[in-house]
Amino acid sequence: xxxxxxxxxxxxxxxxxxxxxxxxxxxxxxxxxxxxxxxxxxxxxxxxxxxxxxxxxxxxxxxxxxxxxxxxxxxxxxxxxxxxxxxxxxxxxxxxxxxxxxxxxxxxxxxxxxxxxxxxxxxxxxxxxxxxxxxxxxxxxxxxxxxxxxxxxxxxxxxxxxxxxxxxxxxxxxxxxxxxxxxxxxxxxxxxxxxxxxxxxxxxxxxxxxxxxxxxxxxxxxxxxxxxxxxxxxxxxxxxxxxxxxxxxxxxxxxxxx
Length: 258
Prior knowledge:
This protein has helices at residues 45-52, 75-82, 100-105, 114-122, 126-138, 154-167, 184-200, 212-218, 241-248; strands at 7-16, 19-29, 34-38, 60-65, 85-88, 172-176, 205-209, 221-226, 229-235. It is α/β, with parallel strands linked by helices.
């Protein structure tokens, strides 16, 4: 039995203030794929993730996310769709003076009304705390359920952001440069954690990265993005050095003769 892709773009273009950010981007992500989006700064990786996350409408082209076109949905149905997409932003987007469990609980904000969420954030039921603890256990943070988020290290805050996305019970997991501000050893841990969680929860994973070697070790497929265009889209094991050189070449830099 074949399943529809988790997300698909067809000839997507996007302009912001008249400037092209994405141009003719076409891709599909399968139901259980682990995909890395590689590219230099300014390539459009974050914008592409926002399009895949149904938070940014393209100027042209077609978008399918979880078998739906986000921009043909009514506002309440669009909100429901977004609640099924876990997104780990580069800056973590945590509220520092809240407890860890409160930041994680915010993952379900899109699924509840304002009053219901306010109750969850102030007087959680015992079962809700058990559920929150269980999600934090998955990322190795169960003992910090009641810690104030501002007291955590950067790596710990990153895990809280991942736990928040998991608490949504998403059908698709996106992560924007999750290892940009950590050392190489921590980067390996974070990528291994994301892949393990995606496997355990049977989620497709799309992650933007700069580190080519990290992408090859932890993902099934790599998409090279430069100047808003797809330069290559191939299995990670087939990514050759000359393709990376072209992807990250400085303006005016000549490719190495072959």
